[in-house]
Amino acid sequence: MADMNNDITLFNELIEILLNEEKKNPVADRIEANKLYASLDLSLNESPMVDDEFKTALRDVVISTPKTATNLFFNQLFGGRQSKAVLGDLLAVMLNNSMYTYKVAGPQVGIEQEIIRKSCELIGYGPQSNGTFPTGGSMSNYMALVMARDAKDPACRSKGMTKPMVIYTSKESHYSNAKNTSFTGIGKDNIRYIEADETGRMIPEKLEATVIEDIKNGFVPTYVNATAGTTVLGAFDPIDKLADITEKYDMWLHVDGAYCGSVIFSEAYKHLLKGVERSNSFSYNAHKMLGTPLTCSIILVNDKKHLHNSFSNDADYLYQTDGDDFNLGKTSFQCGRRNDALKFWTLWKSVGTSGLTQIVNQQFELANVARNYVKNHPDYTLYSFEDSISICFNYKNIDPTTLCTVLYEHQVTVVGFGSFKEDTFVRLVTVNANNTTQDILHFFKVLETFVEENPSVFETKDEAINI
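RESULT FIELD:
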């Protein structure tokens, strides 16, 4: 007990240091990768470290780690920090329950199931629906593909692949789809990448034409992955039109909402998921738009039998009490599984569904601020569209990969770049709902000031840029 109290005191001291550092230096000082081990004491030694040295080592690691919660972090599809969710995650660490049985998780099972029940209700799934918490969006996509494979060929689980299955996804979809075809035995050569329109949305007519051609060639169309928030442009595939096709040709429809599926909480933007109730499965990441700590991913299925058929396996040493509905290991990919539900529950419980609505709406409002700034500034070129929290642009004809890299290397701001069709650009994501209009405008000011004060750093393809 004494050790725990001491460590909690140390933890609080380190968190105070971190929060102060985030205010003073929103971007962590960059350590070059080839100098990492010379810059920090990361070694593991035979002898124990004395307390003061241990505290110093931890402090150095904390302040050197990229700061993902500040108002100058725009690099990934997550950011910010919701304090009530952090509280839940800390409690989950202290409780240290595994989520495979009611015997060891108790009321935490109910917490997970309540989130799943309410989420299914929000997207229009019926009473036979259910879900689970995978380790991330890639695993959600994997589980959906496994269920699709098994639904198309029920003997596959015991006898192996016997049908030449093919799957379909947009050219703008997440890269996990390619990995998952390999993992499931379908094979990377049997994934069809469907062309996207000028806004990044999968073209349904192209999908159907490809399906018809595959049927003619003896393939078995099995699965369509629709995306709710593509990785680069943040585009939403037309789910309703894709559902018409999957129903016509008896294919599984999965909606990958890892990035922007949390629009289910917003009446103003829920229309972007029109038709989602017709899907076989749907996933979203609360660690993205909703700001819970990593990771917090949910996959929902319209009919829970598919979770059981694909992932249930008897184990007398494990499942000994309480029945399948309370033994969540029967419907998850993992056995031992950390409690990722509690942090989402503490957030949802504390702010209510209306609070989650505000979090989502704030991100779109910030996106509108950024998009309007770019549209109305002559030195910027806009590449993205309405109804997206990804703002894609270029500034003064500076190569975007150079711009993003230099801003990072000089600890100015952390923002990434992306590509769509023939264009490459800076991709600013407004996923941090703690940001304000002033924070977004501050980002542009920081970028512009740095470029103006450091003209020699940037080059166009032909010559140094005249700023």
